[in-house]
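Our preliminary data section would be incomplete without showing what the modeling component actually yields. Below, a chain of 382 amino acids is followed by its predicted structure, encoded as tokens that our downstream tools consume directly.
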Amino acid sequence: MKKVIVLLVAVLFSATFAQTVIGVNLELSGRFATIGTSTLQGIEAALQQSPLADQITLSICDNATTVEGSVACANRFVDEGVTAVLGAISSSMSIPAAEVLQDAGIIMISTSSTNPATTQIGDYIFRMAYTDDFQGKVAAQYAVNDLGATSAIIFRQQDDDYSFGLANFFDEEFQALGGTTQVVDYTAGTTDFTAQINDVLGVTADVIYFSGFCAEGAVLVPALKGAGFAQQILGADAADDSQCPVGGGDAFNGFLFTGFGTAAVLEGEAAQRANDFEAFFRVAFPDATDFNGFTLAGADSLNVMAEAIGNAGEGADTVAIRDALAALENYPGVSGEITYAGTDGTPSARTIAFFEYQVPADNEQGWDKLEQFGLSTAAPTE
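Predicted structure:
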């Protein structure tokens, strides 16, 4: 009888503390390290708040902002037998990892990949972001309708799925609205933009669109200003990174960019949830350099994964959890309501915001980021 009781207690103890392992595939070193860190901190803060905090273990892998690293992380998670993977950040890192994980039947939520191709890989692949066909379109519409632009220079990183695809969506919409464009290509790691700038010195343009990352933007934008380009420069969500205003200084004063909607542009209860989460985050990570849309996207990737695990029920397999995630409707996330039901793994209504950097000339007072307005992917654009 004593053996039976001891065995029963052991079984109950094991069941109570059964762990679900979730892989985290992020750019924690290399060119996108600041964004990766913001995302990871969001994931970790959300886990601290989660009702399943004692049931979820994170297995963290640094992909070093390389395709090879991201694929290696994905293969490691296959070997570990994780239930799901959060990340990667960029489309170039997310797409090859998604191919590995789809084949293995492992759920993946890219925290911020915006290339439409990411979720088209298969039914185990989800994202937390909007897509670049929307982001590029609204940026082009803003340039034409609000700035009155009829001509644009587009700087595009040709060896990156995100930057290349986003620039093309902007280009397509800008021309559809009657504008003319000139595209300038560069590659990752470019530190001297003299040749690219010389190519467009004589080009008349009302606006400059930069679809790349701050690792290069912090060099390009000051170089453009130094060469006499005074046009409004527009960027995208990859510019929501302290590398831009810190590395580029006051050249980024007035720089406009699109990004994940934060509390200032969310409405009602969604704004309150975002504010409450930020307050918690500031206590949990008092030394964090950034709190931005990537932080919120990381948090909600963990939140919806935990919700799906809970909805699937105790002992559910990966298929059941995947089905529960795919059925999710109006989840009250810190980045807004999240619905996967009836989609290809892209949430049906995400809020994108327009932001402006304010960077004093001496940069001694630090920099600020002001939210201008927000748009929902559920709203029609014309």
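DSSP finds twelve helices and 14 strands in the chain. Residues 133-263+352-376 form a domain with the Rossmann fold fold (CATH 3.40.50.2300). Preliminary results of this kind motivate Aim 1 of the renewal.
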